[in-house]
Amino acid sequence: MAPNGSEADDLRAGRRKAARYVVPVTVVGVAAATIGLVPALAASGDPDLPKITAQQLIEKIAKSDVEQLSGTVKISTDLGLPNLGGLASGLASGAMGGGDGSSADPASKLSELASGTHTLRVAADGEDRQKVSLIESAAEYSLIHNGKDVWGYDSKSNEVFHGTAADSGKKHRDEVPATPKDFADEALKSVDDTTSVKVDGTAQVAGRDAYRLVIEPKHASGTTVGAISIAVDAKTGLPLKFTLTPASGGAAVVDAGFTRIDFAGPAASTFDFTPPKGAKVTEEKDAGTDGGRSAERKAGPGRQFHERDAREKGLEKKGPEIIGKGWNSIAVLDTGTKGGIPSSSGKGELGGFLDSLGDQVSGTFGKGTVFSTRLVNALITDNGKVYVGAVTKDTLVKAANAGK
């Protein structure tokens, strides 16, 4: 199932886009931005449906024209990250391009989906009106796209974030997958001649009959991905549930699925929003008043890491190089800064803390530090190169040793 030219370009573009998030201070931020792959939520029944091939089911997903829906989605994420409390959330926010100083900033708030279990209420009415609400124990956060406006509202802090659809609406929807379809779209970009795709029975999800599409690497050696399972609505072709299990086994890395869904058009008032009285409102354009640093944060850590230094030195920024094939692809970026991650030897408490999060490695490439999750690993070498991918630590070290 090798992709055609256009699909291959989309695949490479998707990997380049993912790679821009993965030049971290630690891999905690990487994880928040690379959730793209999930064990199924509990499903009942095995409905008797007409036979369908994997190719036909993929085409059914591609042709799905669902524009109106409302429902509830449950997402559980287990990347195996250390418990860092508020620091983990802050680093994840940085990786998502957040940091405007508002608790209502979508990039900052939705980065919470990178760990734990969360319940979302979602609604859509065409391309110009969508709403996602993150339900918390004593508060609610909503991201609303209505025409040209994008609003984020945090009821806990009574803060509002406002941007325009051209600037932030599509960007935040792209950067923060929230529904099974978001995850499925990313997973299907990985379908090529290194991939096995099959229909593996049926299921019932949120009261809907569904086919189960299973995507697996043909050759598991080197990759951290075990299998992806997508439950596809038999009638509409809409992905209802998405599951990624790691090659290492155990609990799924991400579990995202509808627990309730309705294909009737939501009421127009669903997408109305007026800032509550007394709320602090932050305009997205206000972020550009700090000497360009916020703009760099919005661009993600791939630019944030050393873009300002590069500009000051007159150096042209180069994007990451993609090496390897299929599931063993690795993004390589030369930061231009020697010394890698500060080590614990004579470089203070920060260096010691970062050392505790990673594993020290060495090879013909020199020395470096590997930061790991159950899905994504990143090697940062002392000569300033970064290797990132959904591959094992040994695979990263071999790539660095090859001098690529």
Structure description:
The chain contains twelve helices and 18 strands. It has 404 residues and is α+β, with helices and mostly antiparallel strands. The chain has one domain: outer membrane lipoprotein receptor (LolB), chain A (Clam), CATH 2.50.20. The strands form two sheets. A twelve-stranded mixed beta sheet has the order 7-8-9-10-11-1-2-3-4-5-6-12. A six-stranded antiparallel beta sheet has the order 13-14-18-17-16-15, sandwiched between helices. A hairpin with a 5-residue loop joins strand 9 (225-233) and strand 10. The relative contact order is 0.17.
Protein topology:
Layout: H1 5-19, H2 27-34, H3 54-63, E1 68-77, H4 86-95, H5 106-109, E2 116-125, E3 129-135, E4 140-146, E5 149-154, E6 159-164, H6 165-175, H7 180-188, E7 195-205, E8 208-217, E9 225-233, E10 239-246, E11 254-262, E12 280-283, H8 293-298, H9 301-304, H10 307-312, E13 321-323, E14 330-334, H11 348-357, E15 358-363, E16 366-372, E17 377-381, E18 385-389, H12 393-401
